[in-house]
Design brief:
The complex is a heterodimer of chains A (151) and B (168).
Chain A: H1 5-14, E1 20-28, H2 34-54, E2 59-61, E3 65-68, H3 74-87, E4 92-97, H4 101-105, E5 112-115, H5 126-149
Helix pairs in contact in A: 2-5
Chain B: H1 8-40, E1 49-54, E2 63-72, E3 77-88, E4 94-97, E5 109-110, E6 120-122, E7 127-129, E8 150-153, E9 156-159
Antiparallel strand pairs in B: 1-9, 2-3, 3-4, 5-6, 6-7, 8-9
Classes of the chains: A alpha/beta (151), B alpha+beta (168).
Bound molecules: FE2/S2 (inorganic) cluster.
Chain lengths: 151, 168
């Protein structure tokens, strides 16, 4: 389910079935890395959209967590997100990001960080984009299924 | 002091009409195109969409087929990928099932549950369906998988819009 009114309505009727959230982590900056960060957002966006399509009955895809790349407090802000989400009935949190700094910070988070190196899609044909994203998604699906099967 | 000199205000209002004109044209053009387009598109396949699957390649084992179609929402027309599970049933008829779980909409897979290799399986809440799409009682889904109407053209499989199974 996605962050749109119709899906929220569905969620409210079936909340007990939806125990997993995906939060895309999207850095923003305005200097040399600006373009790279935009690519990351594009890529992460496509990827999470596809994941949601596969698992829409069990996953809630939240709008991205957007932060300035040099913001030191983004970890604290994200901690607040996850505490709130865990207090609600969500059991599993997945952060999908291309920003490698979250790999080091994973230990301070309760959710799982899925770090995916970003590809700049702007030079690619649609067909190629689709294949690449689908390939990535295929590799991610078992991670979710395994985690669900654990308990 | 000529009467024909264009004052600033007049100039502005001319320009605005100009821009407005452009905008109107910009809005009308696509509308005209929408109206004309279906006529221009030759292919008389009705609402059926071509899949890359040859009907001779369809056997009794369900296989996943992806096909592309255009979807329009209020703003964009985008190319979407649809999926069907296709196989021949005992009577030799082609069956194309929608992979969308009737519980809450996850994508079902064929034979991925080790204990039930001859069923469709939904990884989200372990919903199951018989090969013909009938939901297995006691699992979360309450209805059978939707069915695509199918047809064959030039050796390839075409599918229509998935519909809830009749008489179920
Ligand atoms: S969405 Fe398939 S069993 Fe719940």
């Amino acid at each position: 389910m996605r962050w749109v009114a119709a899906d929220v309505e569905m969620f409210q009727k079936a909340a007990e079935y939806v125990d997993t959230v995906i939060v895309p982590l999207l850095p923003v900056s305005f200097d040399a890395e600006m373009k790279q960060h935009a690519s990351m957002a594009e890529f992460t966006g496509l990827l999470t959209t596809q994941l949601e399509k596969q698992f829409r009955g069990r996953i809630f895809l939240f709008p991205g967590f957007v932060y300035m790349k040099d913001e030191v407090d983004s970890l604290i802000a994200l901690n607040h997100w996850e505490n709130t989400l865990l207090e609600k009935q969500f059991h599993h949190i997945f952060y999908v990001t291309s920003d490698s700094s979250w790999r080091q910070r994973e230990k301070d988070l309760k959710g799982n960080v899925l770090w995916i190196p970003s590809l700049s899609l702007d030079q690619m044909q649609d067909e190629q984009k689709r294949t690449i994203v689908e390939e990535q998604v295929k590799q991610l699906l078992p991670l979710f299924i395994e985690l669900w099967n654990e308990k | 002091m000529s009467k024909h000199r264009v004052s600033r205000r007049q100039f502005l209002s001319y320009t605005l009409t100009g821009v407005g004109g452009f905008m109107a044209a910009g809005m009308l053009m696509p509308m005209v195109r929408f109206a004309v387009d279906p006529v221009l598109k030759g292919e008389d396949t009705g609402d059926f969409i071509a899949t890359p699957l040859k009907t001779t390649d369809i056997n009794t084992e369900p296989q996943k087929v992806n096909f592309k179609f255009k979807q329009k929402d209020a703003w964009y027309e985008s190319e979407e990928t649809g999926t069907a599970w296709v196989f021949k049933n005992e009577a030799g008829e082609i069956v194309a099932l929608s992979p969308v779980c009737k519980h809450l909409g996850c994508i079902v897979d064929w034979g991925t549950d080790k204990e039930h290799p001859e069923q469709f399986f939904c990884p989200c809440h372990y919903g199951r369906y018989e090969k013909d799409g009938t939901n297995v009682p006691g699992t979360p889904p309450l209805a059978p998988l939707d069915v695509y109407p199918t047809k064959e053209k030039d050796g390839f499989l075409y599918v229509g819009k998935a519909e809830p199974r009749k008489g179920a």
